[in-house]
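Title: Comparing notes on inverse folding

I've been comparing how different people in this forum approach sequence design from structure. To keep things fair, I'm posting one structure and asking everyone to reply with a full sequence. Here's the target:
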């Protein structure tokens, strides 16, 4: 890939700059602060939409907008291959974010497939490393940066695991039913297996103490059967005891009722007297009633006779009065003739007067001799009461007799009813045996459960031990210094050879360390390298990365940290890389401290540019080049 043109508007110190970069090697020189680093950032922003030195600082890309402007634009014309059509990448940076256009059309920020070779799994990391000579060392601090560095390099090598590499590994026993197909899969499998092995080891720690022998186990079934029999006996005892107790309680209640009934009858009989006395009273009342009725009859006869006598007396009195009236009439009036002579009339009056007197005397004697009125109604009431009294005495006497007989029968039943004392003693005994049986059953179940747990623990321990062995074997194969690292070392071998082929010009040698991951330059980690060593090692990485990824482009800044000899070695390395087709374009940036910038002569495939700065901003201009013969 080659960047053929670059246009900057309101970007950093550049107000409006455009330059053609269509050379295999582009050299850019500037004074300090003129815009060399800003140009490198512009190239990186054009390719990946971000700047590496801003990624970890927390600063947004919008900080690169020129002061006083609302937005900046970086446009790069990229030719992916010699045969491909150029692609125009435009990044418009605003405070709210970055807008990307490809060939004038809005596109996602990370649409790399239009200008990068296909198949790069970490395109952003690749571009970050290619746009800075020390980019491979600046992927992040500590273990995180080392892991990103490792992922980047892994993305450049063949990830497939050889078919026979996993032969003999107990993957199924380790829970990995699907064998890992790539190194990434193997790394993930290692994490799972390692975590599982840790869990298994912790679980096995519970089974370190040997299981104590438990001896002969009690027969739980026999204990349960005997306990069921005892519970059945208790149920029958309770049922029988309940029935007997219920019957006796009923008899006791009936005896009390009968005793109360008999006592009440006896008291009432005592109040009423004997039935003979009551019957004699009835006879006496009946006799008195009969006599009263006879006297009433005689009184009625006498009354009839007295009435007849009264009638005769009234008749005599009427005739006597009439006769007396006739005699008075004759004296008073001579016109009335008297039928009787006065003497006869006087005699008749005297006779009637005697008769009247005699009748009156007889009636007076009869009335005086008449017996008093008999109390028949009272006697009849007394007779009715006496009869009811006899009936009541007889009824109460019958109830008394029946109640007494039933009372004696109930007492007989109570005397012959089964006693509850034996059941009262048997039931607690059976309950005690049941309680003891339940305790025995609980203990037996505890022992059986302990045996089952011990058996299960033994089986589990055996299974865990086997699983732990399988997990350990897989961890050894997939872990540090294992199969994965050996395959990775083999795959990285070609990359290491290429890097060291470039570093040979500098008298350096690079090596990868697997556990923990590290890059060593002559045995020294990057953190201890001098700046020039990091630059040279980074350049070797860039060349190898450019060729391996297929991008074949690199940007190197701060060449001024190299002395004259190492600059010559750098150009020699680039010449080697270009001759072997590893690099298609290299953009080099350096600061010059001399009065005038380097004037060449330059080879025909080198384009030299001078970056200057004034009040209007920075500018990039081609240098008048004296070509080498």
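Reply #1:
Here's my take.
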């Amino acid at each position: 890939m080659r960047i053929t043109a670059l246009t900057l508007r309101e970007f950093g110190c550049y107000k409006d700059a455009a330059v053609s970069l269509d050379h295999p090697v582009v050299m850019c020189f500037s004074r300090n602060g003129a815009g060399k680093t800003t140009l490198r950032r512009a190239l990186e922003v054009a390719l990946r939409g971000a700047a590496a030195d801003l990624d970890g600082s927390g600063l947004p890309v919008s900080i690169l907008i020129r002061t006083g402007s609302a937005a900046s634009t970086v446009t790069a014309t990229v030719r992916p291959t010699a045969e491909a059509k150029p692609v125009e990448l435009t990044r418009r940076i605003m405070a709210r974010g970055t807008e990307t256009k490809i060939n004038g059309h809005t596109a996602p920020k990370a649409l790399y497939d239009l200008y990068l070779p296909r198949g790069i799994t970490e395109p952003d990391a690749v571009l970050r490393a290619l746009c800075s000579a020390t980019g491979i060392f600046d992927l992040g601090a500590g273990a995180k940066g080392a892991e990103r560095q490792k992922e980047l390099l892994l993305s450049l090598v063949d990830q497939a695991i050889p078919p026979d590499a996993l032969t003999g590994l107990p993957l199924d026993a380790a829970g990995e039913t699907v064998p890992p197909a790539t190194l990434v899969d193997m790394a993930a499998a290692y994490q799972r297996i390692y975590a599982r092995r840790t869990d298994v080891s912790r679980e096995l720690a519970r089974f370190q103490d040997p299981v104590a022998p438990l001896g002969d186990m009690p027969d739980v079934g026999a204990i349960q059967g005997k306990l069921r029999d005892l519970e059945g006996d208790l149920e029958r005892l309770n049922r029988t005891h309940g029935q007997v107790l219920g019957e006796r309680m009923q008899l006791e209640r009936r005896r009390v009722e009968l005793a109360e009934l008999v006592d009440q009858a006896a008291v009432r009989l005592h109040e009423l007297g004997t039935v003979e006395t009551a019957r004699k009273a009835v006879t006496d009342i009946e006799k008195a009633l009969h006599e009263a009725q006879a006297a009433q009859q005689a009184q009625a006869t006498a009354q009839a006779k007295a009435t007849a006598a009264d009638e005769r007396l009234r008749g005599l009195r009427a005739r006597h009065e009439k006769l007396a009236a006739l005699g008075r009439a004759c004296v008073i009036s001579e016109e009335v003739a008297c039928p009787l002579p006065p003497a006869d009339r006087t005699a008749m009056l005297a006779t009637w007067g005697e008769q009247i007197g005699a009748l009156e005397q007889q009636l007076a004697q009869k009335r005086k001799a008449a017996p008093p009125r008999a109390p028949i109604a009272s006697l009849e009431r007394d007779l009715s009461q006496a009869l009811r009294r006899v009936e009541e005495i007889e009824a109460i006497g019958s109830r008394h007799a029946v109640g007494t007989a039933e009372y004696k029968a109930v007492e007989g039943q109570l005397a012959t009813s089964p006693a509850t004392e034996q059941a009262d003693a048997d039931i607690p005994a059976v309950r005690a045996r049941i309680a003891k049986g339940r305790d025995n059953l609980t203990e037996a179940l505890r022992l059986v459960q302990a045996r089952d747990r011990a058996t299960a623990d033994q089986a589990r321990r055996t299974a865990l031990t086997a699983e732990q062995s399988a997990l350990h074997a897989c961890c050894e194969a997939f872990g540090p210094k294992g199969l994965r690292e050996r395959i990775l070392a083999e795959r990285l071998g070609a990359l290491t050879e290429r890097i060291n082929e470039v570093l040979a010009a500098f008298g350096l040698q690079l090596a990868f360390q697997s556990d923990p991951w590290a890059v060593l330059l002559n045995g020294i980690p990057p953190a201890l390298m001098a700046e020039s060593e990091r630059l040279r090692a980074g350049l070797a990485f860039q060349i190898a990365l450019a060729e391996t990824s297929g991008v074949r482009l690199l940007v190197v800044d701060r060449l001024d940290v190299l002395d004259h000899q190492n600059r010559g070695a750098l150009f020699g390395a680039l010449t080697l890389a270009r001759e072997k087709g590893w690099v298609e374009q290299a953009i080099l940036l350096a600061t010059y401290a001399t009065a005038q910038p380097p004037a060449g002569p330059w080879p025909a495939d080198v384009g030299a540019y001078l970056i200057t700065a004034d009040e209007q901003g920075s500018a990039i201009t081609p240098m008048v080049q004296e070509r080498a013969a």
